[in-house]
Sequence to fold (471 residues):
Amino acid sequence: MPKVCCCLSSSQAIRSSLMAGKPKLYYFNGRGRMESVRWLLAAAGIEFVEEFLETREQYEKLLQDGALLFQQVPMVEIDGMKMVQTRAILGYIAAKHNLYGKNLKERALIDMYVEGTRDLMDLIRVHHKFSPEEQEKNLALINERATARYFPVYEKVLKDHGTEFLVGNQLTWADVQLIEAILMVEEKVSTILSKFPLLQDFKTRICNIPTIKKFLQPGSQRKPPPDESYVVTANRVFNRK
Amino acid sequence: MAGKPKLYYFDGRGKMESVRWLLAAAGVEFEEELLETREQYEKLLQDGALMFQQVPMVEIDGMKLVQTRAILNYLAATHNLYGRDLKERALIDMYVEGTTDLMQLILMFPFLSAEDKEKQHALIVQKATNRYFPAYEKVLRDHGQDYLVGNQFSWADIHLFEAILMVEEKKCDVLSEFPQLQMFKARISNMPRIKKFLEPGSQRKPIPDDKYVETVRRVLQMYYNVKASV
Fold:
């Protein structure tokens, strides 16, 4: 527990320790929609704690406590707020930690790029829910979208301005989300970057950034791809099937 | 650079409608190029005008912006509708993500089979009355102010207003248990620019019909087999 200054009332002290405290992530013990938040916090060098949902009762308690604005997770306790909605959470973290560009136009570019990578990652996020036959089709779709729609755009962006990062010559949320997307697609199609030399360089560079390198090492809070137990837990908590 | 924004989309609501609402509420005049043929769309693709080969696309301030969220963020920020600081922006973002999720259920509605439409209709009403409207009702009740965030008009109010009207088109008395939202709706309706946008002859688009569905399918060669949300 942090030391309490004797000149603060105890509730003020608790409040200020909460404000200075680490963000707390409420989600399953798995990637899902929360993984992008873990990536962004890690890239920004922000330590965070996690409460993993394992039982229906935990979820119902959060609901009863009014902790989930729209009855959904992800939820992140940060700076005195209980934030929900992944994009809102990511936008706040990015802006707070100088990862959202220097001006409105840079922000517009970052927004476009992260929306693109989000669409690509959404295809992968739901992959494990499909039957084997549907998974085959989905894999083909992921491959097609990555190589024909999304990666060519980022390859061209890097080629056109010749700098290390996607926007404004510094690390932003757009780079963090792109590296996450690249690694996710590679888990499904290992040769996906074969026609994208600049993205290969980008991948090497970004993975060598100290905070990101650390996140990629075993023992970090990065989660593995979804497995059977992840699916079972999510279904149990949400009373599905 | 000083020209009017130009919207590239179908002659219908879809994902572009929220952009039209935001521009109208901000008092910004805009032009539209309405996609009617496959050829128009292919020309945009060939010209490299669509970053991810998709619409909506908005030409504004020398940019060809795509991705609805990116477009709306930019417009809100440039027209002082995105709050005064990071925390207000966080609240606005949470609220618009909620209304976006609700409106997404309605967006796909016209593309569904008759049987799926019935299911979806029930889902829309259920989510509106059990998940989304209670959240906004509580926000307004708790702070007692006229607007959702920071005691000033913002993008969150416009988006909520649009969502309310869309759900009312499905069930006209859907606000019956939400007195705060009823008053909110009346207040927003009376704002001059909103009032103007609600009048016939504005660039607001009507409820999507079969012709709209047929146009989207023809131009994009997609969305032939859309299913109701679970």
Summary: Residues 132-161 of chain A form the longest helix (30 residues). Chain A is about 55% helix and 5% strand. The mean pLDDT of chain A is 92.
